[in-house]
Structure formats: C-alpha cells, structure tokens
DNA sequence: AATCTGTTGCGACAAAAGTCCCTGACAAAA
DNA sequence: TTTTGTCAGGGACTTTTGTCGCAACAGATT
C-alpha cells in the first residue's frame, strides 16, 4: 500500500460524514485520491468550467466564491482541513457552480467524478453520506440567502463574529489563530470593507465588542446575539 | 390497487428526476403517498418544526419562504405541479429549513421521511435521484446568493422577467397564464413592492418592456439580458 | 350601482449601503 | 534603512434601497 494511500485514509476519516463509512469503502476512496499542492492565492478551478472533481482539504484554507462583473466578490464558503467541496458538480455532472482558490498554501486531494459515481452506486452508505453533505450545504446556502435578504450588514457581522468565536473556542484541530481581515469579512458578508469598519466601530461604541490590538473580543455575547437576530 | 395509488404513479412520473426510476421503485413510492388538500394561503409547515416529510405538488402552487422578524418575506422557491419540496429535512433528518404555504388551492402528496430513507437505502437509483434533486436545489440557492449579493434590484428583476417568459413560452403543462403581482416579485427578489414598481417604470422608459393592460411584454430581449447580466 | 379586496402608481422622505479618497500603522522584502 | 504592500481608520459624498402615505383602478360580490 503506497504511502499516499495511508495518509489518504487518515484524511478521509477526518471528514465528518465519511467517518462512519465501512472500511472497504474508505479504502476504495483512498486509492482514488490524488494529492495536489497549491500556493497561496492560486486558483483551483473556475465556475462554469467542466467539473473539476471532488476535493478534500488536507491542509491550508480555501475559499469558494463568485465574482460580479464589477469585480465584487461573494465568498460562499471558507474551508479548512477536513472540509470537502465541489460536491454539487461531481454529483450532477454539471459545471463547477462557483470558483475556488487557496487562501493559504494548501494541500488538497481530488477524486474524479466517475470514481465517486461508481462507488456511490455500489455502496449505498457512500451515497447516503453524500446526501448528508449536500443537505448540509443546502442549509448553509439557505441561511446565506436569509442573511443577505433579511438582515442588515451589522446583524450579519454580529452573526459572523459569534460563529467565528464558536469555531475558535472549539480549538480542535491544528488550525492557527486565524485573524480575518476586514476585506475578507466583507467578501463573506456580501458587502464592502468600509461597511465592516463602520459596523465594527458601531458595535464597539455600544460596548458589544472591544479591540485587543487588532484582535476582536466579544464583550457582551448576549447583546451581540440580539443584534444578530433582529436588525 | 387503490385509486389513489394509480394517480400517485402518474404524479411520480411527472417528477423529472423520478421519471427514469424502475417500475417497482415507483410503485413502492406510490404506495407510501398520502394526498392532502390545502386552501389558498394555508400554511403547509413552518421552519424549525420537525421534518414534515417529503412533498410533491400534484396541483396548484406553493411557495417556500423565510420571514424576517420585521415581517419581510423572502421566497426561496415558487413551485408548481410536478415539483417537490422539503428534501433537505427529509434527507438529513433536521427540522424544516424554511416555511411553506399554498399560493392557490392545492393538492399535495406527502411521504414520510422514514419511508423515503428505507427506499433510498434499498434502491441506489432512488438515492441517486435524490442526490440530483439536492444538487439542483443547491445550484438554485447559489444563484440566489449571487443575485442578492452581486446584482441590483433592476438586474434581478430583468432576470426574473426573462425566466418567467421562458417558463411561459414552454407552455407545457396545464398551468394557467399566471400573472405575478408586484408584491410577489418583490418577495422573490428580496425587496419591497415599491422598488419593483420603480424598476418596472425604469425598464419601460428605456423601452425594454411595455405594458399590455397589466401584462408585461418584453420589447427588447437582448437589451433586457444586458441589464440582467451587468448592473 | 355600491362595496369590498387586492392591486398598482407615484411622490416625499429616511435609512442603509456603496464609492472615493486620504491617512497612518505595521510587517515583510530589498 | 528604505521600500513596498497590506491593512485599518475614518470623513465626505452618492446611490440604492426601504418606508410612509394616499389616490386610483379592476374584478368579484352583493
């Protein structure tokens, strides 16, 4: 068994909805895996291109995004180790629904559509795992639509801060502290950098957050949650 | 074989991604189907409630929507005969991700989550059909996020008009002419009625559309598409 | 005809979001 | 050290979007 197959198995087990797959299915997947390295900022694939395959993040961070004709960016997902992406194109055979690029130097592994398809048809457990992953993706997207349509930038920002605090407190994996720039927050919330600056100032003036030299600290979680829900 | 099972079979065959399922799977589904009638405006289920089951529209129209605390509505989907909804909750077992209500008097059929689950595990073709439906839903949601984040109301409206014109020209099913009110357009595009009025006036002044007593007629499809893409 | 009800038209105004621009802080690279 | 680039802070202004209010109109019902 090749070295890469061994490490691939470990990686596959890190994917939550793959964790409970039977050994032989994981092994079959592991054999089909191809590792690739990407430099910070490098494009992984572009939307509308034919399906680039199924990806798992082994190391580093990746963003999935859309660009407007005017050059504004909307980040759809921000992914770290153990996360997967491009399921949609792999599963329906259409083009990539959005573009992907590496936010940091990153190692990904990629599985071709046909391999996934054959394995999924042969192993209902895998099909079911993929279904769960798609359902989760759909829930995430619904939440995004709700945010964009029904909430102000300030409320969205409050939600983002709470979510990031959550992630950080779990402190599970090898991830580093990960400070987000205002520009990235803007791209994730569908607005511009300046709006983030203003909203942060607002929240700080109201005493909901404070700054510890370029680090944001939540000072009043309860009131921050109120802002996140209404407004 | 009961009468309702016969008509259920016909209905299932109208669902695009069920059409190619083998006969015995369709039959099994048909047996599990329960028909229900809803009056115009009636709530079918609410978000956050435990999974209400899998639904197929037999007749009438249905909307899937979110409400903001302030009472603004965002329509996620507008469904007619042959369309299905609430797959997400059925497939991941979570609560309904959004609310549903009947836009007209409607007949729906409903299948309980457990039935779908068992059948999908036993029949990979069904699992694959569900995967396709989820993937399509995800693509639709990605397009919505893109619209809300990256396009002006005017551009979104242009897209809606083009899409509706498309649907209408296909004129396939028994659907009637279906005029949409400005209020509904607003809810679908994530804005308010007045904005739709203004945008329509704009488009009319530029000569891209005209009005034939409360009916919107596309006067210049090409330029309308330009507005839809940029802006 | 009279009266609902749901719809549209439109103007005035307010708030939210986006654009432009310039500053200084800081860190990495030369 | 200088240079370069990224990032944050913030002011002034424009555009877009949302709110309020009210009149008008069409279709259905009585």
State the gist of this model.
The structure is a homodimer of 231-residue chains. With 231 residues, chain A is of the alpha+beta class.
> Could you describe the largest sheet of chain A, including whether it forms a barrel?
4 strands, antiparallel
How do the SSEs of chain A run, as a string of H and E? HHEEEEEEHEEHHHHHEEH
Mean pLDDT of chain A: 92
Beta-strand percentage of chain A? 15-25%
Evaluate the radius of gyration of chain A: 19 Å
Give me the oligomer status. homodimer
Shape of chain A: elongated
| Class computed from helices, strands and strand pairing of chain A | alpha+beta
- Residue share in helices of chain A? 40-55%
- Low-pLDDT parts of chain A are 172-176
Using a beta-carbon cutoff below 8 angstroms, give the protein chain pair with the largest interface and the number of residues from each chain. A-B, 42 and 42 residues
Instruction: Give the terminus-to-terminus CA distance of chain A.
Output: 56 Å
Q: How are the elements arranged and paired?
A:
Two copies of one chain form a homodimer.
Chain A: H1 3-14, H2 23-32, E1 34-38, E2 43-45, E3 54-59, E4 62-67, E5 73-79, E6 84-85, H3 87-92, E7 99-102, E8 106-111, H4 113-122, H5 124-150, H6 153-170, H7 182-189, H8 193-205, E9 209-212, E10 215-218, H9 221-229
Antiparallel strand pairs in A: 1-8, 2-7, 3-6, 3-8, 4-5, 4-7, 9-10
Helix pairs in contact in A: 1-2, 4-5, 6-8, 6-9, 7-8
The structure holds a DNA duplex (30 and 30 nucleotides).
